[in-house]
Structures are given as structure tokens and as C-alpha cells.
Specification:
Blueprint: H1 3-19, H2 24-40, H3 42-57, H4 64-77, H5 80-92, H6 98-114, H7 117-134, H8 139-150, H9 160-169, H10 173-201, H11 214-239, H12 245-262, H13 268-302, H14 304-314, H15 319-333, H16 339-355, H17 363-381, H18 389-397, H19 403-426, H20 429-438
């Protein structure tokens, strides 16, 4: 059996293990270990594993992950999700589809300090769903809005998944954050437009809420200004070169912790719970990273990614068509896998292919642009019926709402996703504007 054939067999074995519900980190570790052993021998793979974990996790860039996770835990304790939703509702709630727009805006704000799609969806569902029901919103539209809004969790920087992509592809984390900001804001805008258009087409699905008083609006600004300040300090500090992304994550964690403490949301019990959740979340992510490192080492031994890239480059096919096919693969995989696992599994395969194609951009800009596109499409997969993970998260929070109603409610946002991704593919400069401006 040739090494290339061994690579294809390993990929097939990996998908088989995932199909029988073996955790993705363990599946990649097993296939990578056995595949590498078949090429190097048992002693060879054991020697590699003797140093691989240390080499993988001694990277300074990975220290940003537990800091951002801790920042998200403190943000939940500080009640930022409630403050963001109330602020958005005070200014937008009286408009047609205003509570849906408020939910989307609050999801974007909370995602900026949380960095997780599933966590954003679950947290905002607890805050927004009761209010939307009280206002008489169609329950399918309400749950569909929350599922879609949750995908903004990793689109608005800072984002843990962007950090992983940066490490895998040797890209600058700060540049990736800059590249993600405008597409993330575009996602918020297109979702709000989609919610507004749907509410105008079906007014019975989104009744108007009472207009907030001037006092309520001013109060909402007072409640939410610390969130804005933390975001500006963390992201602005990175762009201005005041501190590195890792230092920014530490500043953000300290700031959100102090805010939670000031709002009496961070006692000793809550602090221990936050640290515990951060530790378990970090452990889960690092185990997946270790499995991906071993599996990617196996793929490197087989030369499968390099051979695939060379073969595709030789084809007389438009690079844009190849890009679209790759993005469609992400869309399909997003229905079955979580974002982090998908990025770790596919980037070592797809990245060499994309960077070998000619899009009329420098290779470093192609790497940034592709990272944002991949992230966007992966998140669309999280709400693509019938198996989008965010749909199941929201459905578990609203058990009285049939899944089919949530699926119907998410269709306007899927249409918005299609428009947005088409724009970002056609105009790479949107993703690259801030990178070119600051760097």
C-alpha cells in the first residue's frame, strides 16, 4: 500500500469513527497514531509522541485560549447578556421586528466577550426567549433568531477559533482579528435586515413592542457602557499595538472579572465555578488540538495534502470554482461537526490547496481571506437543517417548540448568509480593508 493510499484509508477510518460517535479528538488521535505507526513503525511513532505534546502546547499563542474562556465566564456572571439585550431592546424594540434585531445585536455584543457560538446561543436564549414570547412573537421565528444570532459568537473578534486557525496556518492573530471585524459587522447588519423584512412580510409573527421611555434608554446606556469599554480596550489595544492578543485577553479577563465583582455576580462560589468551567473547556480544546496534531502529522507523512494541492493546481478549472466547492464541503460538514473540530480537521487539507491557487492576491492576504470565509461558512453549517448544532441547542432550551418550527424560523437568516458570503467572495477587500489600513 502506497503512502497516499494509506492517507485515504486513514481519512475513511476517521469519518467512520466519527459516524459511530467516537469523540473527534480521540478519533483523530487513534487514526493518526495507527496511520503513523504503519509508516514509521511503532518505535518511530512513540518517539514522535515523546515530544509532540510539549512542542504543540508550549506555543505562547495557545495561552490566549483559557484567558478568553475565562473572560466569557466572567461576562456571564456580570450579567452582560441581560444588559446588552435590554439596551438593544430599549432602542429597537418598538420597531417592526425590533426584538429580533435586539436579540441579534445582543448576541453580537456578548459574542465579542464570549467567543463561542454554542455558549452565545444558550446564554442569550435564557435572556431573550422569555421576552420575545411575552411580546407575542411567533415561537419558530423567535427560536430561529436565537439560533442564527448564536453564530455571531465567533465571527466578532476576539475569537478562539480564529486563534486556532492562526496557529495552524502560521498567521498573525491580530491581522486575523482585523480581517474578521468588518465581515462580522456585515453579518450583524444582514441578520437585522433579514429579521426586519420577515417581520414586515409576516407582521403577526413579530408584534410591535412598547416604545421605551427616554429614562429607560439612558439607563440602558449606563448599564452597557462597560461592555463597550472592554471591547474597545481589548480590540483597540491590539490594533493600536499597545499589547499583544495574549496580553489583550488577560486585560479582558481582568476587566470582566472586576465588572462581575462590582455587580455582585462573582462571589467565591461563582469564581470557583468559572475557573472550573474554564479548565474543563481548555482541557477539551487542548485534547482535540493534540488529536489533530497527531492526525496532521500522519497526513504530512502521507503527503496527501501536498499531492492534492499539486493535482488540483494542474487542473484546468477556475480557482473560484475550487473555492466554492471547498466552501460547500464546509457547509455540509458544519451540519455534523462543531466549529473547532472542523477547522482542526480540514485546514491542513484545504489550506495548501487554496494558497496554491491564483486569486490575484498575495499569499498572505489569501490566507487571511480564506480563514474568514471558512469561519463564516462553518458557522452557517451550525444552523443548516436538519442537523445544525445551534438548532439543537436552542431546541433543548425551548422544548415546547417543534424542531420544524425552528427550522422554518431560521430560513430568512440562511438567505442573509448566502447573500453575505457571496459578497465576501466577490469582494475580498472587505475582509482585507482593516488589515491593509493598520498593517
Amino acid at each position: 500500500m502506497t503512502e497516499t493510499t494509506t492517507g485515504f484509508v486513514g481519512l475513511g477510518a476517521l469519518f467512520l469513527l466519527m459516524g459511530i460517535r467516537v469523540p473527534i479528538g480521540l478519533a483523530m488521535l487513534l487514526v493518526g497514531f495507527l496511520g503513523s505507526a504503519s509508516i514509521l513503525g511503532l518505535n518511530g511513532i512513540l518517539n514522535m509522541l515523546n515530544t509532540a505534546p510539549y512542542e504543540e502546547f508550549s506555543s505562547y499563542s495557545f495561552s490566549i485560549i483559557p484567558l478568553f474562556l475565562l473572560m466569557g465566564q466572567f461576562a456571564s456572571n456580570a450579567g452582560l447578556s441581560t444588559a446588552l439585550y435590554n439596551a438593544a431592546g430599549s432602542w429597537l424594540g418598538h420597531r417592526r421586528g425590533g426584538l429580533a434585531a435586539s436579540t441579534i445585536g445582543a448576541c453580537a455584543g456578548f459574542g465579542a466577550v464570549c467567543g463561542s457560538s454554542l455558549a452565545t446561543a444558550a446564554t442569550m436564549a435564557q435572556v431573550a426567549l422569555p421576552e420575545m414570547r411575552k411580546a407575542g412573537y411567533d415561537r419558530g421565528f423567535a427560536t430561529g433568531t436565537l439560533a442564527a444570532g448564536g453564530t455571531l459568537g465567533i465571527l466578532i473578534p476576539p475569537s478562539v477559533v480564529l486563534v486556532i486557525y492562526a496557529v495552524l496556518t502560521s498567521q498573525n492573530i491580530a491581522k486575523l482579528f482585523a480581517a474578521a471585524l468588518l465581515p462580522g459587522l456585515l453579518a450583524v447588519f444582514t441578520y437585522i435586515v433579514a429579521a426586519s423584512l420577515y417581520a414586515r412580510r409576516y407582521p403577526e409573527a413579530a408584534p410591535l413592542a412598547p416604545r421605551a421611555s427616554r429614562h429607560q434608554r439612558l439607563r440602558s446606556i449606563i448599564d452597557v457602557w462597560p461592555v463597550v469599554l472592554i471591547f474597545v480596550v481589548v480590540i483597540g489595544g491590539i490594533y493600536a499595538g499597545i499589547f499583544t492578543p495574549t496580553e489583550a485577553a488577560a486585560v479582558g479577563a481582568i476587566a470582566t472579572g472586576a465588572l462581575a465583582l462590582a455587580r455582585k455576580g462573582l462571589g467565591w462560589k461563582e469564581f470557583k465555578h468559572s475557573v472550573y468551567n474554564t479548565a474543563t473547556g481548555t482541557g477539551m480544546i487542548f485534547f482535540i488540538i493534540l488529536g489533530a496534531a497527531v492526525f496532521n502529522g500522519f497526513l504530512a507523512l502521507t503527503q496527501l495534502p501536498q499531492d492534492g494541492a499539486a493535482w488540483i493546481v494542474q487542473l484546468s478549472v477556475s480557482p473560484w470554482l475550487i473555492l466554492v466547492v471547498i466552501l460547500l464541503c464546509y457547509l455540509i460538514l458544519g451540519c455534523f461537526m462543531d466549529t473547532l473540530s472542523m477547522i482542526l480537521l480540514t485546514i491542513p487539507i484545504f489550506f495548501p490547496i487554496v494558497t496554491a491557487l491564483d486569486f490575484g492576491l498575495p499569499p498572505d492576504e489569501v490566507a487571511l481571506w480564506f480563514g474568514i470565509l471558512a469561519l463564516m461558512v462553518v458557522e452557517v453549517g451550525m444552523i443548516t437543517p436538519p442537523l445544525g448544532l445551534n438548532l439543537f441547542v436552542i431546541n433543548s432550551m425551548a422544548r415546547d417548540v417543534p424542531m420544524i418550527e425552528t427550522i422554518r424560523g431560521v430560513f430568512p437568516f440562511l438567505a442573509a448568509d448566502l447573500v453575505r458570503i457571496s459578497i465576501l467572495i466577490t469582494f475580498p477587500g472587505i475582509s482585507l480593508f482593516l488589515v491593509r489600513l493598520f498593517y
